[in-house]
Amino acid sequence: MLSNTIVLFFSKSSFFVLIIFSSFSFSNDNINLADKISSELRCLVCQNQTVYESNSEFAVDIKKNIEKLLGQGKNESEVLSHMVDRYGYFILYNPPLLSSTYVLWIGPFVIFFLFSILTFLYIRKRNMTLIIGKNKEKK
Amino acid sequence: MVKHLSFFLIFLILCFFLAKGLFLDPREVPSPLIGKKIPSFSLPSLITEDKTITQDDLIGKKILLNVFASWCGPCLEEHPYLISLKKSQKIEIFGLNYKDYKNDAKIWLRSHGNPYKKIIYDPNALLGFDLGVYGVPETFLINENGIIIYKHVGALSEKDIIKLISLRAHVE
């Protein structure tokens, strides 16, 4: 029964770990800054892709604008706020932690926690029933 | 009994939200420019090629700024409604010709009619970028002070136009 809970816990947590690490694609400082920025922006035409990944005309235009802004001497956060000023927070591929996105970030953990408790209680109840059953047999 | 009832209640609540969701467009991106003044720009006019249009040309009256292109299908769908709107003289419509070829745009307007008071020629999406345009067609409602009141993404239906021109032209 404990092994069941452990299996459940690991399958859920590895799922989360996978999701969290899939969003870190650039850790090397030598990577082109324009590419790093475009990988943090969402393509608004192909909305599940980053601007870096997308070949849509919109993405091509955004990439040109990134180069233009970097050429003007802007740094990474300035370029990103330039984009957010025009397109809103949705253009950031990773949603920022704001009051409106709180539920999005915390939600899965809350649900996981809730279901862990429910699962634990259920397994415990089943164990109690088994023990009571066994005790009845003995008599 | 209570357990069954509470599960059913949760089910109903879920149904309510899912049904509501069916009427939402997940691809629509809200604009952060609502309540802000239109960006400054200086671009050539499509029709009168030696003239330049700036943001000052858009300020003074409540207007619609319609982003369109000759290669855009939905733009053609909404175009007759813009022509009727122009004929009704209820509001002036300015055009933003987005990422288009000048001649293609002119031919398109000649075939389908020209409802625009002035047309900004923006082949490189310079103004488009500053307005947060990510597709065509898009239509902005701009008040007499040059403040963006509303942005409509996608083709306008007759109902959309009625709703748009009756919107209050002031943001708190």
> Most extensive chain contact?
A-B, 15 and 14 residues
Secondary structure: helix percent of chain A? 55-70%
Strand content of chain A: under 5%
**Gyration radius of chain B, in Å:** 20 Å
Give the helix proportion of chain B (percent range): 25-40%
Task: Kindly list the characteristics that best describe this protein.
heterodimer; A: 139 residues; mainly alpha; 5 helices; 65% helix; B: 172 residues; alpha/beta; five-stranded mixed sheet; two-stranded antiparallel sheet; elongated
Provide a quick synopsis of the model.
Chain A is built from 5 helices and no strands. With about 140 residues, chain A is mainly α. The mean pLDDT of chain A is about 85.
Topology:
The complex is a heterodimer of chains A (139) and B (172).
Chain A: H1 2-22, H2 33-38, H3 57-71, H4 76-87, H5 102-138
Helix pairs in contact in A: 1-5
Chain B: H1 2-22, E1 42-44, E2 52-54, E3 63-68, H2 73-88, E4 92-98, H3 102-112, E5 119-122, H4 126-130, E6 138-142, E7 148-153, H5 158-165
Parallel strand pairs in B: 3-4, 4-5
Antiparallel strand pairs in B: 1-2, 3-6, 6-7
Detailed description of the structure:
The complex is a heterodimer of chains A (139) and B (172). With 139 residues, chain A is an all-alpha fold. Chain A is built from 5 helices and no strands. The longest helix of chain A is centred in the C-terminal third of the chain and has 37 residues, at 102-138. Chain B has 172 residues and is α/β, with parallel strands linked by helices. The longest helix of chain B is centred in the first third of the chain and has 21 residues, at 2-22. Chain B has 5 helices and 7 strands; from the N terminus they run αβββαβαβαββα. Classes of the chains: A mainly alpha (139), B alpha/beta (172). Chains A and B meet through helix 3 and helix 4 of A and loops of B.
